[in-house]
Specification:
The chain has one domain. It has 6 helices and no strands. It starts with a helix and ends in a 5-residue tail after the last helix. The mean pLDDT is about 85.
């Protein structure tokens, strides 16, 4: 029962984070553009922000697809966590899934700026699992710290853009 309680709390916590990301998705897309411009050495005034309102519906749609992706995996994990005996493996599985999903979430804004589709995003992230899981694990750790967790999403979007830039995924 304690594992189940922890998992239910985690679902509510990540649900709140996901809701915040859905609301702020258009802004994170712009942040990713600005970070990438900085990394490329381009002046920020060259960043096209005129399409910001035009992209908002597309980005919100993408966030809703990520929500569905999350729920299709979270619900089975939740069910696994209530089966006695088997539930002991649910916590490590939740941690792995959460690290993966946080990376997937925060790299998505940069990918979407480059019109990289959902399935291609997954494929690219799976090619370098160590950096993908390390990035997600560090974000998972930081989001567990009260107050700090409010600043993590913006820092994670910037960090994800830098990670993809360094890996050569934005060329």
């Amino acid at each position: 029962l304690p594992i189940f309680t922890v998992i239910v709390l985690a679902i509510f916590y990540y649900g709140f984070t996901l809701l915040a990301n859905i609301i702020s998705a258009p802004f994170y897309g712009q942040l990713a553009k600005c970070v990438e411009a900085h990394l490329r050495g381009a002046p920020l005034n060259e960043v096209n922000t005129g399409s910001f309102l035009q992209q908002a519906p597309k980005l919100l749609g993408s966030e809703l697809r990520k929500l569905l992706y999350y729920l299709l995996r979270a619900v089975p994990l939740l069910l696994l966590s209530i089966v006695p005996g088997i539930n002991v493996i649910s916590l490590p599985l939740w941690l792995i899934f959460s690290a993966w999903f946080l990376t997937f979430e925060y790299t998505g804004y940069t990918f979407e700026n480059h019109q990289v589709l959902f399935n291609e995003q997954k494929r690219i992230l799976q090619t370098s699992r160590l950096s993908t899981m390390t990035f997600g694990s560090m974000n998972l750790l930081m989001t567990s710290i009260p107050v700090v967790n409010f600043f993590v999403p913006a820092m994670a979007v910037a960090g994800a853009t830098k990670m993809l830039f360094d890996r050569g995924e934005l060329d």
